Amino acid sequence: MAASSEMKELLNRIYMPSVFYYPKDLLSDLSQETKKALEEFQIFEDVGIIKANGDSGSLSMSMNALEIFKKDGVLEGNVFQLLELKERLGSDSFVFLLDNYLSNVKVWIKVYKNLLKNFDKQFNETSLNEKSLFEYQLTTLDNHLIILNEKFKFNLKDPATTNSIDILSKNEKVFSFDKSVNNNIKAGVKQLNQNKEYKTGKKLEKQILLTEKEADDYLLKTVFSINRA
């Protein structure tokens, strides 16, 4: 049970901290009304940060940018913990854990590459400072994979794993956020609106029913499985 908990913590720390934004393509299948409502809150114009402790914030608060520079130290801690687990666990258990960890690292490298690749397209006025943070997190995770290979001697190009996450990482649609995700977002937006109509006792017309925090929190939970404190 303790090993399972440690595994979950290790996997979480692969992406904590991270900088991110909501890709505009994410909502390509939403209605114009819903997209307009979300655009009113400038959701697509902000760069967010998932902090090392799991909280989230915006880079509009300049101090939050410093959080991403904890990433190198966090990943070093992961390597140390993996070395400890290798000594404690049986061979089969550790191989299973390492395969899952490597698969997750590869997925997040793929996510980071897509976020960096589409950064200029997402933001009309490109901020070199913000873009450099996306470059930093990708380089840091790439280097982490190299260090893992040095410590645990797997084939870097083909880490001999059949984990389902590897299959997902090869599927471009996963990172274009397919229709099922869009449908979940639409359902969530509709439910939020219905909840507000029920509370007020009447239908609100020609008014945006979502608050900025509700929209932001819902997208965080849907896309990144992050609950904002």
Shape category: elongated
Strand order of the largest sheet: 1-2-3
Instruction: Give the strand tally.
Output: 3
User: What's the story with the biggest beta sheet?
Assistant: 3 strands, antiparallel
- Mean pLDDT score, rounded? 75
Overall radius of gyration? 20 Å
In terms of per-residue confidence, which ranges show pLDDT below 50 for 5 or more consecutive residues? 159-182, 199-210
Query: What structural category characterises the helix and strand content?
Result: mainly alpha
| Residue share in helix | 55-70%
Strand content: under 5%
Termini distance?
Answer: 26 Å
H-E order = HEHEEHHHHHHHH
Number of helices: 10
Structure, described:
With 229 residues, the protein is mostly helical. The two termini are 26 Å apart. It has a 3-stranded antiparallel beta sheet with strand order 1-2-3. The protein is elongated and about 55 Å long. It is built from 10 helices and 3 strands. 21% of the residues are buried. Mean pLDDT is 75; it is low at 159-182 and 199-210.
